[in-house]
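Hi team,

Filling in the usual template for the complex we talked about on Friday. All components are listed, including any nucleic acid strands or ligand strings, so the model treats them as one assembly.

SUBMITTER: L.P.
PURPOSE: interface mapping
COMPONENTS: two
RESIDUES: 1188
SEQUENCES:
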Amino acid sequence: MTSLKLFAWLTLLLPLAGCIAVALVGRRLPGRGAGYLATGALAGSFAAAIATLVTLTGREADEQQVVAVAWDYANTVGIDAQLSLLVDPLSVFMILVVSGVSTLIHLYSISYMASDQGYVRFFAYLNFFVFSMLLLVLAGNFLVLIIGWAFVGAASYLLISFWYRRTTATSAGIKAFVINVLGDVGLVLGTFFIFKHVGTLDFLQSFENARETFEPGDGDLTAGCILLLVGAFAKSAQVPLHTWLPDAMEGPTPVSSLIHAATMVTAGVYLIARMHPLFELAPTAADVGAIVGCLTLLIAATIAIAVTDLKRVIAYSTMSQIGYMVMAVSAGAYAAGLFHLMTHAFFKALLFMAAGSVIAAMAGQQNLDKMGGFRKAMPFTFGCMVIGGLALSGVPPFSGFFSKDEILLLIGDRGGWYWILYVAGYAGAFMTGIYTFRMIFRTFFGEPVPEARELEEGHLHHAEVHTNPATGEVEDTEVGFPGAEHHIAEREPTMKIAMGALALLAIVGGVLQIPKVVHVIDDFLDPTFAGSALYHRELGDGLIAFGLVLGAIVGVAGIAVAYLIWVKNPQIAVTVRERLAPLHTLFVNKWYFDELIDALVVRPVRWFGAWSHQTFERIFVNGLLVGGTSGVVRAGSSAVRAAQTGFLRYYALLIVVGIVALAFYFLMSA
Amino acid sequence: MIATAETIEAPHVDWAGLSPLIAVFLGAIVVLLLGLSRSRSARETAVPLLSIATLAIAIGLSVGRWGERTDLIAGALRLDELTLILTILFCVAGIATVLLSWRHVAPRELAHGEYYALLLSSIAGMIVLVAAQNLVAVFVGLELLSIPLYVLCAAEMRRASSLESGLKYLVIGSVGSATVLYGLAFIYGATGSTDFGRIAEVLAGGDVASDVLLLTGVALTIAGMAFKASVAPFHQWTPDVYEGAPTPITAFMAVATKAAAFGVVLRLFDVALIDAALDWGPALAVLAAITIVVGNVGALGQSSLKRLLAYSSVAQAGYMLAGVVVATRLGLQATIFYIAVYLVMNLAAFAVIVARERETPLGDDISSLNGIGATRPALAWSMTISMLALAGFPATAGFIGKFYLIEAAVAGAYTWLAVFIVVGSMISLAYYLKVIAAIWMQPAEDDGTVVATEPVPLADGGETPLLAGGAEEATSARGQGELVGVAVVFAALTVILGIVPSPLLDVVRDAGAALGLL
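RESULT (copied from the run log):
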């Protein structure tokens, strides 16, 4: 095994080893030992990922796609199911982002979750999640991809429902799982459509076969790719399969940060980028992806302006940003989309961490209406939030500016109807500035709330009675809720280190790729996308200059509007809300997507279920199938047992009957 | 040349090729002699250790011969990968049985030496049986394997049900042996040869394939082999004997005897009678289907774990028979793979049963597992994994095994039999999951305080003695290390082979190639 493969396997297996170790011995470790063990496993994984990167870049460009096969699982009659990893620039890029950000979030969780009753369980789950995600991005064939995809969904379910005594958390977990399974079905069916024609599960081989098998625009391939998109939309919370993501904020904040911002929800983006040879042969499917991404970014941005739950604002912002990425990779701007994936992982994880710190200071309260004036009480958190916010709004020279603008530049360059996406992208960027700084201004500016005053006097507010922030129900912290104690970044070194590192990355991450100046990401990813027709495009200088200036102006303008409305003259907010009452209602109610799905899917299904329960099941299933079948089986069972008398003479009789029947058969056939 | 005409020349014996068999025989003799020792520690410790060492040596010698394909003793036996892999499996089962018997009451009753010597003789018989490529050698092997087992079943001679089990096995087994002998004689009569190769040549050469004498012989042979492999409707002894015999011996019979029976069936039908496959194929297929149904349906109402596993072993025999029916190399590989996997899965389950028999006064009743998920996690997980694997859950070895059997059946144009396997697996969940439910969902019994005052009633209405299966030494969890070890090792193997099946598949591929099928 070459050292490259070895490092890739290490990256994958260290989190699994960590998960098992934490689950087995975590309880016996003193204090926060389980957290340090899990973080250590992740740090090792990140180190192995860096080693993989170094080894990979040391190779020639045409040797940078390596398939590491561990063993054949089933290799017969037309199926080549192997446990194989594909180590190439794209997967190495993804493992670096995943393991790197995960390490920092683990570090943050060591303190943040310290008083939770389920501390050990939390880290076991978290490590399992990272393992699943790494399996997903390292998969070398469709089978391993599907396994990783399903594992990620399961890990997400476990972590959303982590506080399993909260009814809101369990129902959010179920919702996420159901929608994710819908995506799994899409992925599996899509795989089948493609497998049927290319005859292999291996990625590289199937891409090669696809070029020979499919005409561009082939019907089956388009159907397969659209089904793959269903999987991608469900995982990446794209319209209309996005409704689980805001609800997933019921999980602990580090989970929101890791899974529902930085890693899992970007799986769809990765999938489209990985399957780019197929999508380029099925342009219709690619266009569907681009349009849905664009719709998502606009819809999510409008909702983010209206909702008042701190974490949900960031969740909708995540949806919106992933919309950019999906739009980018569907429209052929692969490197730009992945670049944005990386910078987004940095600043969005940072924003969630800062939000977690604020929520801890509020003793679990997440409502923006009840926050305000934390600027003095939490200077470090405030600084991190502003850095994350500036990066998210796309203000130069923060990282988000470069990545978002590159996406829009490349889409604008394609011309044609892509101009609509281009314009929508800038409209989204303007709203991004507004909602981000609305959140920051409402949390940190204005009159300090009692919790903030308490903190300024050096005392961290703890709720006397712990309640569910969503429903106000009283909760018992002894059975696995966030403990009575809360931890804020200002007082916990590990949280500070994690946030500081991400803040730094959010500021400088953009220098990796500056149009016409630096092309680190482009060059690195080149071997993966070498065969793509859309990858190597030269942009006109005019477009670049115009785009960069426009992007900067739009971002700053959004912030200015937010400042005007929520700091300078809070009266405007009320006036606007009254003037545009219908629009506000639409946004606050999240465009009625939940109600729409309820009316279109849930209710008809439930009605059909009730109907079949009352008629179909009672008569046909229970009566005939279950009653009949189990009756037959039960009768058979008693017949067999009745024959089992324990008396040898009956056995002898049956033997004779058996022998005679056999002999009779053979004689008849002779 | 002149000399050979007058004196009978002893056939050339390839001692190296026979070495695993010889090692086991020598071990049996040494163990028997050592069992006469006055020293208690020699009898109780040295004898089992020596038995394990013997079997380990036999495994080592078998591994050393891997890749060889030769005839031994004038063609009576055949040394090839099929013989070797089955030899290794018998020895593994033997080692596990020795460990399960370590502190059991049965070896004590038989003065240790005899018990282990009989066990080793039985293993030697199995090796002869699966290596046999001559009708006479088949019968010698069959008897060598069976007779020690009759005694071993009755090893707990102070317990009536153990004696009953031994007696039943003796009577039914003798009927089976007689049937086989009858059948083999007919085959010899029809073909004029006892050598597998010659028989195959005769069958290939002429219209003997539809000869009445031959077909009757085949029918009787099938019936006789079906006894040993507990294939329905010749399975009736299985639940009774399995339940009454000492549990370690039950474990040994369930895995090793079945493997031996299938080993000889594979060689006899896929080598000697391969040209009559169109005749025996459908008959075996029907038997397989009946066996799957009877085994799975019969297991449903059982409350005794040993009876449950007995019916389960009947059902599993049906699955394995599907691989024989198709008479292809794929089917052969699938069967061998399943035999190996079946051994691994079952040994874990039996180790748990033996452990719980000692820990609770409930014997092998399913309630002895109640709540062990909380109190004995190692045993609980082993049993859970074993049950899931027997049911064919993905990510366990049982899944891969069934997958290959089904694939072999479909590829061999027996799709309907594959459907039986799937439906049978579905029914089997009803009783395998019942065991898992007892482990995880029932409250734990108070260990040691529950004293069964009434005989545990048997579902079959048969008279059940109090505390079946060596439960009289029901004690605490002290000194169960070897049982937990066996359970954990085989459960771990079940999972590992379910995720990484390729090493075993490679071995099985070699063994499958040994018989020269397509």
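MY TAKE: The longest strand of chain B covers residues 70-72. Chain B touches chain A through 50 residues (CB under 8 Å).

Thanks, L.
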